[in-house]
Design brief:
The chain contains nine helices and nine strands. Helices cover about 40% and strands about 10% of the residues. The strands form three sheets. It has a three-stranded antiparallel sheet with strand order 1-3-2. The radius of gyration is 23 Å and the shape is globular. Helix 3 runs antiparallel to helix 5, helix 3 runs antiparallel to helix 8 and helix 7 packs antiparallel against helix 8.
C-alpha cells in the first residue's frame, strides 16, 4: 500500500533463483518498460513511481478477482456468450501488445485474472519479445516452459518466431479449454521436440468433449492452432470473426472433407506417384 496515496499495488521482484543470471535481470528490467507502454483495460497497468528506488522491483495495479484456471474450475459449464466475452477481451489485450510490436509469448490461464464483473485482464508479461530490442529470437528454454507447453506455440521450441500467430495459438488453446476443460492435443505437446514429432500431432475435435460446440466454431479453433503457422489465420481479428460468425468454409462435416475435389485430387496424385515408383522399380529389376 502506498502510504502517500493509499493505493494498493502488487510488487514484483526478481526471483532469488536467478539473481546471478544477467540475462534474467535484463529481461526483468525490460518488463517494467514494456508494461508502461501497454495501455488497455485488459492488461494490468504498471505504475512508475516518482520516487527513486532503493532496490530492483516494479509495481502493478492490484487486480481483484481469480486466475482463469481457478475460474474454469469454479465454472464447469459457463454460458458460451460469457466465454466469448472473456476471449474477446483477452484478444483485445493481446492486440494492445501487438500494436507496440511486442509479442506476449506466454499466455496461459494462470496469467489471466477474471474480475468480479467478468472482465479479463492479462497480468504477466515476463516472456515478451520486443521488435528492435530482442534482435535475435531466442526460443523459450525447456525448463521454463514445462508447465506451459500445452499453451505455447510448439513451433517456438524449434527456434522459429511465428509472430502474432504464436499468441493466437495460445489464445485458441485457452478458448478450447474454457469450453471443454480439456487440451486440444491432450498432453502430446509436452513430449514434442522435433519437426517429425510435431507432424504426428492430431487435433482432438472440441465437440468430442462438448457436443454443444458447433462444427464451424471448432474448425475455427483448429485453424488457429494448425501446427504449420502458414495455415493459421493472419490476424487475431480474423480468428475472432470466425469464432463469432459461422464461416461457410467451416460448415462441411469432417467426414465429407475427403470427398471434396481437392482432397480427391490429392489422393489421386499420391496414388499416381506410388504407382510410378513401383513401375520404375519393376522396370529396373528386369533390366538388371
Amino acid at each position: 500500500r502506498d502510504l502517500e496515496t493509499d493505493q494498493i499495488w502488487v510488487m514484483k521482484t526478481p526471483s532469488r533463483n536467478y539473481e546471478d543470471d544477467t540475462a534474467y535481470i535484463e529481461r526483468f528490467i525490460m518488463e517494467e518498460w514494456v508494461g508502461s507502454r501497454i495501455h488497455s483495460p485488459h492488461v494490468v497497468p504498471v505504475y512508475i513511481p516518482n520516487r527513486a528506488k532503493n532496490f530492483l522491483y516494479y509495481l502493478m495495479e492490484f487486480i481483484e478477482g481469480v486466475a482463469l484456471d481457478t475460474w474454469m474450475t469454479q465454472n464447469p459449464s459457463p454460458k458460451p456468450a460469457l466465454v466469448i466475452q472473456l476471449v474477446r477481451q483477452m484478444a483485445d489485450g493481446l492486440k494492445s501488445f501487438h500494436q507496440r510490436e511486442t509479442l506476449h509469448q506466454d499466455l496461459k490461464p494462470s496469467n489471466i485474472v477474471v474480475r468480479p464483473d467478468n472482465s479479463a485482464v492479462i497480468v504477466d508479461f515476463g516472456s515478451v519479445f520486443v521488435a528492435g530490442i530482442n534482435e535475435i529470437f531466442v526460443p523459450l528454454e525447456r525448463d521454463r516452459i514445462l508447465g506451459t507447453m500445452n499453451y505455447s506455440d510448439p513451433v517456438f521450441r524449434l527456434g522459429q518466431n511465428t509472430g502474432i500467430k504464436g499468441d493466437m495459438f495460445s489464445l485458441a488453446a485457452i478458448t478450447y479449454e474454457m469450453f471443454t476443460h480439456k487440451l486440444p492435443f491432450g498432453n502430446a505437446l509436452e513430449s514434442c521436440e522435433t519437426p517429425q514429432q510435431l507432424a504426428k500431432l492430431n487435433y482432438i475435435p472440441a465437440d468430442r468433449y462438448n457436443p454443444i460446440i458447433p462444427i464451424w466454431f471448432d474448425r475455427a479453433l483448429e485453424k488457429a492452432m494448425m501446427i504449420n503457422p502458414t495455415q493459421r489465420y493472419d490476424s487475431i481479428d480474423q480468428m475472432m470473426q470466425d469464432l463469432t460468425q459461422p464461416s461457410p468454409d467451416f460448415l462441411v462435416p469432417r467426414e465429407k472433407e475427403q470427398k471434396t475435389p481437392n482432397a480427391l485430387l490429392f489422393w489421386q496424385l499420391m496414388s499416381l506417384v506410388w504407382f510410378m515408383t513401383a513401375l520404375f522399380t519393376l522396370i529396373a529389376f528386369w533390366l538388371k
